Amino acid sequence: MRGAARQLGAIVGSIGATLLLLLASREPRQLLVRRARLALPRPRESATGLRLAFLTDFHAGGPGTSTQLSRTALHLLASWRPDLVLLGGDYFDQGNMVDTALFDELARYENVFGVLGNHDYRRGTTNAQAIVRFLEARNVRVLRNEFVTITVERQQGATGTIELIGLDDPYTGYDRPEILKRPLPPHPRLLLAHAPSVVERLPVGCADLALFGHTHWGQVRLSPSRTIGLLDAAWYLDRWRHKPHARLQRGWFWEKGMLVYVSAGIGLTQLPFRLFASPEILCLELDPDAHDPQRACDDPLRYIRSSTVRHTLQREERR
Known about the structure:
Blueprint lengths: L1 H25 L3 E9 L12 E5 L10 H15 L3 E4 L24 E3 L10 H12 L4 E2 L3 E8 L5 E8 L22 E4 L16 E4 L20 H8 L10 E5 L2 E5 L17 E7 L17 E9 L7
Parallel strand pairs: 1-12, 2-3, 3-4, 4-5, 7-8, 8-9, 9-11
Antiparallel strand pairs: 1-13, 2-12, 6-7, 10-11
């Protein structure tokens, strides 16, 4: 009986492992477009209707479908018609710049801002500066511990104004979070940075919304927790590089008096697959009517009403 039980267990284990491998190879071909109506904690009528798009961790030239996913993400962006496009870093895998027209489509948008990630610094500061010049040639303004006030022209002559803060990469230590000590402006303030590890060093109430990437949600995620652990591939990558794990890893949070989103990103690194951490882009529309007063003030779902569209790469997109 014990021999039969062991044999049955081995068969079940083999089937389970095969199913996980199939899922892991299929998931990087399915890009999630997360669309959300967002009520900021400090509602501002002047910002109502502004459309933001957040894309991060492209890893162009990286393993698997990284480049194809990034191309599809930028193509799908056009249908959202964003007023503001925000980029979270890691444009080229391992900082290895490849000859590509992938990012050329960004030039069509008037307001595109980005920050650098740890892969952008992987080959040194000179290479990072080359990546900055590459992006600037495509109408992307790269913020490195800088503030910028953006006024977007709206329909019928109306305008919407936000303040954007872009921190240089926290993972490699180039960030300066102390610049967020300045008082909040009357219009919304957005914080953009690559790695969520910087949250621990931010002043309370320093922004209305913060957007991060870097974590890939673990990329191979077998833990149900919103923090990474021994069941997630990213845990080992951080340990390998002797870096502390960010406390915030996946999805929406309420932290330091602001809304925080940590994106799974688009591309892949080190491993050519994902599991339970689908690649994604985030499309936000500022709308005070998304507010749900029945929920607690520190519950992110009080401010968000979202939906998800799944786009599967077609055969020609995977070439």
